[in-house]
Specification:
single chain; alpha/beta; Aspartate Aminotransferase, domain 2; Aspartate Aminotransferase, domain 1; 2 domains; seven-stranded mixed sheet; five-stranded mixed sheet; binds pyridoxal-5'-phosphate
């Protein structure tokens, strides 16, 4: 099945009792057992629910994975994954992680003896050296957040495998429409389904996808044992949202490309970060491993911090808000919003300057978006 068919038909579960074409929402905490300990596959919704399974069948299909486990949020999914490690285990990251991911490693799990360390850029030398400290995982995002660096997944996997280290990739930014890390040898993919997968900024969710039955077992156990389960209603919403993923991603991308091109020649712009521009230093890698370049565009304006803040607070259509991947365009200021949880020094070291602005380009008409961007320059 091709992607555009999978988003509609994979995992679809017509209700056998009524013929309801769309699966109902199973708002139940518990399930009738035929005799003590003998359920029909479900016993308590913290452990499992039919709406979880329906969504998992879709998501595993979209990532070409054997298994998926859905969670209450992206960070819930990551918490579940990290909980499968033990005290004394180490995680090697590559800079450019979502701020909340960084915070989870450094402000929570570090206190439980799970050590996170990172390298700024995965050159083969730096990676070999860092891997010799025997981490359990090599952990990264590509494209990164918010600078949209693209890492060569297959090349990183090859080096990690040589050291017997599992690779874990956050595929939220690309979405499974543009990139399938498992096909490139990655062991575990996770998503914030809050973003492109659900696509309407009305629900929070997360998921883990893998071909490894042990990872699936660990994720399911963590969900039940820690209480990281989503609500059946939220899973139903995400199941509904994902059906238009193909159409949305095509439009996100074509709009983002036009916004990036518009900014690239603008006199008030110092630098545009978009992996679909041939001027992007990872353009060739992106073209090779992705089927498109996504809907995120970051920009460094040639403006003072105050002017930048004024500009992005005055757009008419583009809302000043955290998050991304919804049908509506959003703008954010990473240094004071999404990445405020990263200490200033570390943030600057990672190239997240105070003048950097991140756009999540929505699926509105491109003429209206460019008009909003252009006319708002008049406020400064
Ligand atoms: C939002 C986001 C997360 C966290 O997901 P939540 O659903 O907010 O918990 C993780 N990674 C990336 C890239 C994100 O954008």
């Amino acid at each position: 099945m091709k992607f555009a068919t999978k988003v509609i038909h994979a995992g679809n579960a017509t209700d056998p009792h009524t013929g309801s074409l769309m699966a109902p929402i199973y708002m139940t905490s518990t399930y009738l057992q035929e005799s003590p300990g003998e359920s029909q596959g479900y016993d308590y919704t913290r452990a499992n629910n039919p709406n979880f399974v329906i969504l998992e069948n879709i998501l595993s299909s979209l990532e070409n994975a054997k298994y998926a486990t859905v969670f209450s949020s992206g960070l819930g999914a990551l918490t579940g994954l990290i909980s499968t490690l033990s005290q004394g285990d180490r995680i090697l990251g590559i800079d450019g992680l979502y701020g909340g991911t960084y915070r989870l490693f450094n402000s929570v799990f570090s206190r439980f003896g799970i050590d996170f360390y990172s390298i700024p850029s995965p050159t083969p030398e730096a990676l070999e050296k860092a891997l010799s400290q025997k981490p359990k995982w090599l952990f990264f995002e590509t494209p990164t957040n918010p600078l949209l660096e693209v890492f060569d997944i297959a090349a990183l996997v090859k080096i990690a495998k040589k050291h017997g280290v599992l690779t874990v990739v956050d595929n939220t930014f690309a979405s499974p429409f543009f990139q399938n890390p498992l096909d490139l040898g990655v062991d575990i993919v996770w998503h914030s389904t809050t973003k492109y997968i659900s696509g309407h900024s009305d629900v929070v969710g997360g998921a883990v996808m893998t071909n490894d039955p042990e990872v699936k077992k660990g994720a399911d156990f963590a969900r039940k044992a820690i209480g990281l389960n989503p609500s059946p209603f939220d899973c139903w919403l995400i199941t509904r949202g994902v059906k238009t993923l193909t159409l949305r991603m095509e439009r996100h991308e074509s709009n983002a490309m036009q916004v990036a091109q518009y900014f690239e020649t603008h006199p008030k712009v110092k630098k545009v970060y978009y992996p679909g521009l041939p001027s992007h230093h990872n353009y060739e890698v992106a073209k090779r491993q992705m089927r498109g370049f996504g809907g995120m565009v970051s920009v460094e304006f040639d403006l003072s911090l105050e002017e930048t803040k004024k500009l992005i607070s005055n757009y008419k259509l583009i809302s000043l808000a955290e998050s991304l991947g919804g049908v509506e365009s959003l703008v954010c200021h990473p240094a004071s919003m999404t990445h405020a949880s990263i200490p200033v020094k570390e943030r600057h070291k990672q190239g997240i300057s105070d003048g950097l602005v991140r756009f999540s380009i929505g699926i509105e008409d491109i003429v209206d978006l460019i008009t909003d961007l252009e006319t708002t320059f008049s406020v400064i």
